[in-house]
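Running this now, will post back.
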Amino acid sequence: MFTGIIETTARVVKIEKENTNYHFTLEVPFGDQLSIDQSMAHDGCCLTVVRVDKEKRQYVVTAMDETMIKTNLATWQVGTEVNVERSMAMDGRFDGHIVQGHVDQTATCTRVVDENGSWRFYFEYDPSKNDFFTVPKGSISINGVSLTVVDSEKGMFSVAIIPYTYQVTNFHNFKPGTVVNIEFDVIGKYVQRLMAQYMEGQR
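Update: finished.
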């Protein structure tokens, strides 16, 4: 379980392929604090730490074929900057929103607008891949970042990014054509499923 409040970014330093699996070695400032079996969100995708080099502050996570197909991990290269968040601690304030680290699908950045102090990012996604959708002022996770939806239409939404978020996450690398991971609000997904079941029962 995560909150969508990014701790920092990690950098991909090595990629190895083994059968259909990919092993990613990443370097992160708190790498000397990590341990094997720890869960971490990478661009919003929950992956398990399988190896740690505390001296180099590096660690390894493995992504199977299903993960590579449904997320933006296939676009990662050596040098790619990745948003990372360790699992939620239960002894502090709950910032952000509930993020499971289960990517629903990818979206593509279509436009970036400089609004003189903030940025508006527009994204498009394929609404036929699932029944989920966004609502104005609702929550959305983009590359693991907890954000509030501004514009919302079928297959399209926008978010506003303040300078702090722009600087400390990989949003500063986004441009038209950038593929990102999105996770729709889990509470909204449950409400939507319950409503669908209710409507089905009324027929």
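The chain has a mean pLDDT of 93. More later if anyone needs it.
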